Amino acid sequence: MNRDQIKFLAIITMTCNHIANIFLTPGTLLFEVMIDIGYFTAITMCYFLVEGYDYTHDKKKYGERLLLFGVISFIPFCLAFGMIQMNMLCTLFLCFLILKVMEMSIGKWEKWIVILIIIFVSLYSDWALLAPVFTILFAKSKENRIKTAISFGIGACLFAGFNYLSNLESMSTGGALIHALCSGIGPVAAGIIILFCYNGKKSDHAGKASKWFFYIYYPAHLLFLWALHQLCML
């Protein structure tokens, strides 16, 4: 599979997650399955953010695109999910800033202080804390297959652990454990596909239209799902 095929797969799984969050009843089997399918996306996008950061010819424009579409997506995200919070593109922009800081010629302690500040800011965004950690893991393990596999494993365990702890109050210990294990399937699947199916190349037919599609789809699908939900409630 090439890069664009995996990104399209990530878009499909993300959309499944968003449909479940907006339209389905929490706790039902279909809701849980579609939610868990969607957990494939975030860790995948963090991986490709790190890869894209190294490959891009213009890091400034790369960051500007993330910020621009993060701002554009703010209102659609808030409308779709009924809360005021920064969206995943904003989170990816914060992760981009972390990569910038990591390559800066400043002291080690200064770097980590700035990185910790950025991670703190992510608390107000989608995939808080986790996406920055995924990004740091992949940045430290790039071009090393074993380290990348370990990074995916750590990422999946962290996410499953987060879900376990967050569900302990509302579920039994066993229920929270099952929920956590299921939530880790998406990140594990992402690791398997990237490690064993990804050919390291972009699509032969990829062009500017393909690149911009990934940015435009995010706010567009959120706005569409919100509008559809409003119509269903009439």
UniProtKB/TrEMBL annotation:
InterPro entries: TraX
Keyword Transmembrane helix (UniProt): yes
Pfam families: TraX
Keywords linked to the UniProt accession: Membrane, Transmembrane, Transmembrane helix
TM helices/strands, residue ranges: 66-99, 111-139, 146-165, 177-200, 212-229
Keyword Glycoprotein: no
Name the record gives this protein: Conjugal transfer protein TraX
Biological source species: Dorea formicigenerans
Organism lineage string: Bacteria, Bacillati, Bacillota, Clostridia, Lachnospirales
